[in-house]
Amino acid sequence: MTRALILGGTADASLLAAEIARAGIDAVYSYGGRTRAPADQPLPTRIGGFGGVSGLADYIRRERITHVIDATHPFAAEMSRHAVQACAQTGTPLIALERAPWTRAPGDNWIEVADVTAAAATLPETPANVFLAIGRQHIAPFAAKPQHVYTLRFVDPPEAPLPFAADVIVSRGPFTFDRELEMMRARGIAWIVARNSGGDGARAKIDAARMLSLPVIMIARPELPDRQRVESVTEIMQWLGHRACLGA
Description:
Blueprint: E1 3-7, H1 11-23, E2 26-31, E3 45-47, H2 52-62, E4 67-70, H3 77-90, E5 94-97, E6 109-113, H4 116-122, E7 129-133, E8 149-154, E9 166-170, H5 177-186, E10 191-195, H6 204-211, E11 215-219, E12 229-230, H7 233-239
Parallel strand pairs: 1-2, 1-4, 2-3, 4-5, 5-12, 6-11, 7-8, 7-10, 8-9, 10-11
Helix pairs in contact: 2-3, 5-6
């Protein structure tokens, strides 16, 4: 009997949850707990961490999980590493639903960097309006450049003081090209810092930056252990032993 664990929190994970629910597969959807009001899912849902590798391994055994699907954000490196180790310990099949990264298109003005610290160091010394599209867990290094006027966008209002002055937009995506263009023009954005998340849901800001000829400091994805990975829900359903046309 199949019992799947979806490590979720992304739009792709929600699409997968809907398809698995339609197929009648026994599954649990797990949120990491970083968002205070996560989107509802059509599957039994748990919220919060597992307590490291050992906690995840214990959960897999206790809940009789037969398949683990890592559909977390491409930058949720710690959770992905824990999944690889826990599944190895328990002998549980693991697959990652991982969207392809964005690639540079004609007209893009990207400055590619390895991590958030390098991104902060790349910003100019001259004060500028900067859109930090990187999530609230990764903004601390930008306190080293307090001269800039920062715009941040979060799903939830920040619970603690930010390490620098910033204008916070509280909104949940996806965001359209026209909306991103309007926001950047209205705020006079001159620089964008983004993580190479890939996919369509967050791409509008990259397309808007190209239209406005804005420089984008693009943070590369973290390196992860080798694991089986696919880019579509259809491939996950095939992996689970169901027909690719299920739900069509």
